[in-house]
Write a structure and sequence with these properties.
Blueprint lengths: L1 E5 L20 E8 L2 E8 L8 E5 L10 H6 L5 E6 L16 H15 L4 E7 H12 L4 E9 L11 H6 L4 H8 L5 H12 L8 H15 L4 H17 L6 H7 L4 E6 L9 H8 L3 E6 L6 H4 L1 H15 L15 E4 L3
Parallel strand pairs: 4-5, 4-6, 6-7, 7-8, 8-9, 9-10
Antiparallel strand pairs: 1-2, 2-3, 3-5
Helix pairs in contact: 2-3, 3-9, 5-8, 6-7
């Protein structure tokens, strides 16, 4: 693994016309070159030595910035890193063009193997939740605990708000959508995404909204932006149709790590009704229900999510030897809305 650290990712990873991503106070970005893929890693300098290592994996259309609020809330608790999946954030496309859930999981595994930070506390949101589930199932040695925020796991009745995402994976639709929306400003697009992903869009500060607009403007200049979106959306759809041992629900049942499941009652993309099924499927799980949250609880309620994770961390212990295995599967259910 080769790594270079600087306030921004090296310009070789970002076309000249695209400005570098914003780095919040206390954060840094570095670019990591691995076989077949280059990943951008966002991190906070650990408050002390020996803190438990974590890795955060974002959802479709997101980036490592989606975890900045939660990483700040966990400052001094964990040694936090967040990855930009291939084709998103500051990470260029993968060499093989594989944007499937398996392809993204392979990139995460390659990074964890190369980083040699030991088993990590793995977080995933939406697409990142599906990716993290697959990583935990196939490489249990890499995962000390699993925290999933609205994971994109197969549903029989797809949420109405998720239909456009599924359609984006249909060949040709991304090109058509680009043409139909070419007059939309980045501000209009961000307002639409915010309304879709937040339980209460009013919780987004004007500063955060403007930062999101700037980030989208930057990413829309990338020549591979829509390709990464469309192929990753297709990857989710394909993962939903897989059966047998490769099916995501079957893999959820194979996860050994203690698992924290977080679902939002106002989620328009992942059905709140799936929370109970997830709690039954992950053998060693606890469920946090947030009735007022949408699809990105770690951005809406970072302090609530951080508190729930700290409780899990206390049960797992620093060594990871103790687990919550004695609790009946999915038995611990909590509700919170603010």
């Amino acid at each position: 693994m080769s790594s270079t650290e600087s306030p921004t990712v090296p310009t070789a990873s970002v076309p000249p016309e695209a400005a570098p991503a914003r780095v919040a106070e206390g954060e840094r970005l570095r670019s990591v070159c691995l076989p077949g893929v280059t990943l951008s890693i966002r991190s906070r300098r650990p408050a002390s030595r020996g803190l438990p290592p974590t890795l955060f994996v974002h959802g479709l259309g997101g980036s490592s910035q989606n975890w900045s609020a939660l990483m700040a809330a966990l400052d001094g608790v964990v040694d936090g890193e967040a990855v930009d999946l291939p084709g998103f954030g500051e990470s260029p496309p993968p060499d093989d063009g594989d944007y499937s859930v398996t392809g993204h999981a392979r990139a995460v595994i390659r990074y964890l193997d190369a980083a040699d930070r030991g088993p990590v506390h793995l977080f995933g949101n939406s697409l990142g939740g599906a990716v993290a589930t697959r990583v935990a199932a196939v490489r249990p040695d890499l995962v000390r605990s699993l925290t999933l925020v609205s994971p994109a796991l197969p549903e029989l009745r797809i949420q109405r708000g998720a239909v456009p995402t599924g359609l984006l994976g249909v060949p040709g639709v991304a090109v058509l959508f680009t043409r139909l929306t070419r007059r939309w400003t980045a501000e209009q697009r961000v307002r639409g995404v915010t309304a879709l992903c937040y339980g209460d869009p009013a919780r987004v500060s004007q500063e955060s909204f403007q930062q999101a607009v700037e980030e989208l403007e930057r990413r829309l200049r990338l020549p591979y932006f829509w390709d990464a979106m469309a192929h990753s959306a297709r990857g989710i759809v394909n993962a939903y149709t897989l059966g047998g041992q490769h099916g995501l629900w079957r893999q959820a049942e194979r996860v050994l790590a203690p698992t924290l499941l977080i679902y939002g009652g106002r989620d328009q993309l992942v059905g709140f009704r799936m929370a109970r099924k997830a709690a039954r499927s992950f053998r060693n799980s606890r469920l946090l229900s947030l009735p007022d949250a949408g699809h990105v609880a770690m951005m809406e309620y970072p302090d609530v999510v951080a508190r729930a994770f700290r409780e899990l961390l206390a049960e797992v212990g620093d060594s990871g030897a103790r687990t919550v295995a004695d609790r009946p599967r999915g038995a611990a259910t909590k509700g919170a809305g603010s």
